[in-house]
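Quick one: co-fold with fructose -6-phosphate.
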Amino acid sequence: MRVIKAKDYADMSKKAADIMAAQVLMKPECVLGLATGSTPIGLYQNLVERYQAGELDFSAVRTVNLDEYKGLPKENDQSYYYFMNDNLFSKVNIDPKNTNLPDGMEPDSNKACEDYNKIIDSMGGVDIQLLGLGHNGHIGFNEPGDSFVPDVHCVDLTQTTIEANKRFFASIDEVPKQAYTMGIRNIMFAKKILVVVSGKDKAPILKEVINGPITPKVQASVLQLHPDVTIVADEDALSMM
Ligand code: F6R
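Sure, here it is.
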């Protein structure tokens, strides 16, 4: 694992954007694996600025996202589709037909997962997969457990996650209880992996991910087995190393 130390969140975003931009420049028809969450927002802003400056062209880029809530329509501002559209897709010249997320409105979980697995496998390999890191070591919605789930699957959100999300909805009944996520095989098959991590609150888990044992209790620890992982983390996130 290559670890790149950034000064702060802005520097992390810039350094990570350098890597994503290099991928698009080297291979304009590349497949980008994308993530949502608060950590990559600055990175996406950087990419948008480079596009506006005429430095990047997304017209041939294809994307696959890690995950999506089950039961939220695209128009819901809490859906990951909405997030991606808001932060990146609507601001660059990417063809919407080339962007992919699990279909959150497919009620049949088996079908939704099978369909998304097929989409990922049909893309001929993700060139670079972007990941954020959960406080419990999750990547995508692969939560701590007794095994690594290989393929796209439907997860039950923990009560803590449902409680934490309720502030974004009119009532707790509207909070999604499940999500569709790429599995560990899908993630590990990417040619390159880029992990962005920021903040003191992520320092203990980042230390585990880099130096701890490889265990499904810390799902991101499996990244130690991938041949090409770059972690771009700020000083706060690396403060326990
Ligand atoms: C997002 C995702 C999650 C986040 C993780 C970190 O698509 O799959 O695993 O990357 O929860 O989230 P933030 O960046 O908000 O700390």
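If it helps, The longest helix spans residues 9-26.
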